[in-house]
Design brief:
The protein has 175 residues and is mainly beta. It is built from two helices and eleven strands; from the N terminus they run ββααβββββββββ. The protein folds into two domains: 60 residues, no CATH class; 111 residues, Beta Barrel (Lipocalin). The longest helix is centred in the N-terminal third of the chain and has 13 residues. The chain starts with a strand and ends with a strand. Keywords: Signal.
Length: 175
């Protein structure tokens, strides 16, 4: 008798976490030896059909997903939070202000020369005061940053693709 075994593998590739679910067949020869049975032709066909119908399920997610915090230089008591979640949704919380929107994270084909691009659009802003003391409705605004990875838990927002003119440092809070 054979048994179908499902294996899950996670790996980092081109700026995306990829999860592979791979189905494979495994012999249970011990059970066969104990029972001294042979697999019938019908059982073999069922096993082949099951193995052929197994699918590889690939799920990708941007490496930027998670909760990030940015300390404001002029206001050390206030942290601005960026939560990049699934389906490209995001929430920004800064003091009394909170905004929701959508983001797109694009990893370049040549990471040694160019930084990933982060573009987001604010869909709703509650028009309250943020950590910088500014009260401004940002609904509809589109912003573009280049993301410089300092290490796996720290990024910087930069003004160009080469990682120059970086103006904000964010630290990973939660995956």
């Amino acid at each position: 008798m054979k048994k179908i075994v499902c294996t899950t593998v996670a790996m980092m590739s081109l700026g995306f976490w990829t999860t592979l679910a791979v189905a494979q067949t495994a012999d249970t020869e011990v059970a066969q030896a104990q029972n001294n049975e042979q697999i019938t032709n019908e059982e073999a066909q069922e096993l082949v059909a099951a193995a052929n119908s197994s699918k590889i399920n690939i799920q990708t997610r941007p490496e930027i997903m998670g909760l990030w915090g940015m300390e404001i230089p002029d206001n050390k008591r206030c942290v601005e939070y960026y939560n990049f979640s699934g389906e490209n949704n995001m929430v920004i919380k800064s003091d009394q202000e909170w905004s929701i929107g959508q983001y797109q994270y694009q990893a370049p084909s040549n990471r040694s020369e160019y930084l990933p691009t982060l573009i987001f659009q604010i869909k709703y802003d509650n028009n309250q005061t943020d950590c910088s003391g500014v009260k401004q409705d940002q609904t509809g605004e589109i912003q573009q940053f280049f993301v410089k990875w300092v290490n796996p838990t720290q990024i910087q927002f930069c003004g160009n693709q080469r990682g120059e003119q970086c103006f904000a440092t964010l630290n990973k809070q939660l995956p």
